[in-house]
Amino acid sequence: MRQFGLPRPSMPARLTANLASISFARLARISVLLAFAAMLLLPASRCTADAPNIIFVLCDDHRFDCMGVAGHPFIETPHMDAMAHEGAMLTRAYVTTSLCSPSRASILTGQYAHNHRVVDNYHPVDPKLVFFPQQLQKAGYQTAFIGKWHMGGEIDDPQRGFNHWIAFKGQGTYWPDGHGTTREVPQTTYDGFNINGKRVPQKSYITDELTDYALRWLGERDTDKPFFLYVSHKGVHADFVPADRHRGRYDKQPLPIDIPSAADMKRGNLPMWVRNQRNSRHGVDFGYNLADFSPAVYYRRYCESLLAVDDSIGKLDAFLKREGLRENTLFVYMGDNGFQFGDHGLIDKRVAYEASARVPLLMRMPGKIPAGPKFEGLVGNIDVGPTLLEAAGAPQLKNADGESFWKAICGDNASVDPDRNLLYEYYWERNYPHTPTLHAVIGGRWKYIRCHGLWDRDELYDLENDPEEMNNLIDVPRHADRVRAMNPTLWSLLHHTDGHEIPLLEDRGPVFPWRHPDHSKQAPFPAEYFRDSEPQR
């Protein structure tokens, strides 16, 4: 039994001396008892542990392919890469709404946006909703939130589920003096931090300062209790401002994304709204309504800003090593949504395309999560809460739409349903009127996207043969049966999660409807919409 790290039990002398005189029946009974005792000494299932500590790090706008371990041509993310090699890299991780506040609310509640109803960046979470950290508290965990809350606009008050609280209003700012930025994004604030209800000024680069606060809390925590630490970075939200030590690192690197031309988008049968969005605040022709917008420059600064987030992971991991906590700590890293840098002629997020909806997700726990192999099961942000609660042995959320994949990622004779689909949803915002209400079936080889309230094409993509999603097959006759099958699948996902209504909230925040008069023109109606009589049925 030494292979389990346990001392070999010595056999009592009296039992040794009298073994020959013991009847066969008694010997059999003793053998059964000894076998049962040995079973108790065997290691438990790979997925069980004594209340593991949990660190959950959330990065803003981190697209799935922007890590060294994901095959990126130049970015340096050694600590993310190490997490993937020492634990699991989840290759099919998606958010169900690609926007800051809705995605964060889905992580906390395990619910789709149509249920938690946080559908933009200006409205708060319903106070009756339960966050998964509240369930961890019930299981005896001490909990801390440090970073970007960003639900309810200017709200940064301490929230339920957290014993320790550090947050800032809206988007905050990278530097307290604002240096390094080229434009001020909506909800930028310079009010510093709310630390457990007290206003404290920001002093340095925000990614580093949040990391320092996290390390301080870890060092001062109650060591008799398991902990849950949620580090929610501002980085790498636009406007991207790298730490001074990283600025200019990638000035000579090319943009590793092919930006399609307007003609390419027309040939690919992309909807009118996508082609029109090209000349908008969220398109390459008029990005952020800047006359000289450059996706390449913007992307370089994005990659440079991500380096401090990787440093943060390294510092947190160094603490775990130093304190001997690595073996019983589940470390999770995730992006809250992706980001487009010219994919489909677009920038920003909100859309259902891979660059927008697919995110990095890394999980490491030595001895529990097998090290090295990529995890290819389909998972969503709505699954995070249920998974962490199962890992902790805490009570589950009663109204979650997501499901735990803890046993599956531990390799404990379980797997994620291979036929599973996720619902993607985005609800039109008056602030950014160029993106319509969208529902989609995502996560498999075929992606079906339905736009709502527009006289326009829907979309169907074969991700196996068209990973760039530039060949819309929605009107190709040989795929008609597939479209007819995927539409009921979409409605089934909505109906089974009570998605019968579109959340409607009052207008808040600025509006950005602008187009550039000299850039790409308005897209015409699809050719197949023109006919001189209604077809016979």
UniProtKB/TrEMBL annotation:
Keywords annotated in UniProt: Glycoprotein, Hydrolase, Signal
Cross-referenced PROSITE patterns: SULFATASE_1, SULFATASE_2
SUPFAM superfamilies: Alkaline phosphatase-like
CDD domains recorded: G6S_like
Domain Sulfatase N-terminal residues, every copy: 52-394
Family of the protein in this entry: Belongs to the sulfatase family.
Name of the protein in its database record: Sulfatase
Species in which this protein is naturally found: Roseiconus lacunae
